[in-house]
Design brief:
single chain, 209 residues, alpha+beta, Arc Repressor Mutant, subunit A, Beta Polymerase, domain 2, 2 domains, three-stranded antiparallel sheet, three-stranded mixed sheet, 10 helices, 8 strands, 48% helix
């Protein structure tokens, strides 16, 4: 019985590899649309031809282009509803001296987050009403990765200062301003929506004046 299935398995694998060569990310639903069982993906991962980069997402090993933001791509693939935030967003934007050993991601409050072995993640729950403020989308290794922009990240550092530390917030606003990366009007607008503007104001005056 197993012998009779082998040619079909080989044909399915060859079709999948041919498809994988035409795109950076191969989705399980694309495979189903072709009428191929997803077990073919599992076999290709076992042989080392494909790599699983997230739930239902695969990548041809030969096409893999590792960047310094590889872990951000992996986290975004595993938790599609997330946004890179706080220390990881600072690192992405090249602001400050933080070198987080976890990927910090924000998710809407109440959203279930899968357990990941790699990369390690730190989850911050955010009100759905405030979740999409200041989001940017960046293309990393074939995947759309959502990251909070500089102004939102600086505001969040003050908002979550009890978690990341006030020193991190002060370093973030100071370096972002000196590096001409911070739009004060945008920061004021976002700060008001997050109800953190009054907390930030005294520190902004020290940095800007």
């Amino acid at each position: 019985m197993s012998v009779s299935k082998t040619p079909r398995h080989r044909d399915a694998g060859e079709r999948l590899l041919k498809l994988a060569r035409t795109r950076l990310i191969l989705r399980a639903r694309d495979v189903v649309d072709l009428g191929i069982h997803t077990s073919a993906l599992t076999r290709l991962v076992r042989t080392g031809a494909l790599e699983r980069v997230g739930p239902g997402r695969y990548q041809l090993i030969a096409n893999r282009r590792i960047t310094e933001h590889h872990d951000l791509m992996m986290a975004a693939s595993a938790v599609p509803a997330s946004v890179v935030c706080l220390l990881s967003a600072l690192r992405f934007h090249g602001i400050g001296t933080q070198l987080p050993h976890q990927i910090w991601i924000a998710v809407p409050r109440g959203r279930r987050v899968p357990r990941l072995q790699s990369p390690p993640i730190r989850v911050v729950n955010v009100s759905p009403a405030l979740f999409d403020i200041g989001v940017e989308t960046h293309y990393i290794e074939g995947v759309d990765v959502r990251v909070y922009g500089v102004a939102r990240t600086v505001a969040d550092c003050f908002r979550f200062r009890n978690i990341v530390g006030l020193d991190v917030a002060l370093e973030a606003v100071s370096e972002a301003w000196r590096g001409k990366r911070l739009n004060l009007d945008e920061l004021d607008r976002i700060g008001r929506r997050l109800r953190i503007q009054r907390v930030m104001q005294p520190y902004l005056e020290m940095v800007v004046l």
